[in-house]
Amino acid sequence: LGQLWPTFGKLEEYLQLDLLPFGNAHMKVSNGTIAFYCQHGPDECLVNEVHTCAVKYVHPQRKLLDFVACTLRQDDPAQAGEPCARKVGTDWAVLDRCSRGPEGIQLLYEMGKRTREHQPPIQYVPYVEINGYHNETMQNLVEEDLFHFVCKLLEPSPPKVCTNVGVPGRHCVMSGDSHFLSEIS
Q: Which cellular compartments is it found in (predicted)?
């Protein structure tokens, strides 16, 4: 989120995010039970469930991104949900109930399906797609400097905030265990 969070803060009226907090997790369905196996262990799966519930319940997008960024910046993201919800002004009880119950499991399963069924297949995270498009060059540019990349996409009439930047010719960035799909308008 190192690039996404500040860029969204400056250009949110031009961005529509679709966060898919699944990362490199795997899932297995057996006898009607869904099990998740996350790259960094069970705490990562818990954080993914909390973030998936936040995608459904935390609005507007700025508040959602503030919540996700807050949790991921903590030493123990799995324990950060309640204080971060309080900090951004959202109802932790709703997120906690969702993430600890069948709704959270179902929502994370749906995120997993979307991640696994994506074409072309997602090979790594973060994975960035803009206006339905992805390639390695764009991925590298957005990981370097997302803000300038988005400003370039908004030409020939970029917003004023894009004209007040100090490093011309650079392009874009993002980090984290999620991927996002974005629409630039």
A: Secreted
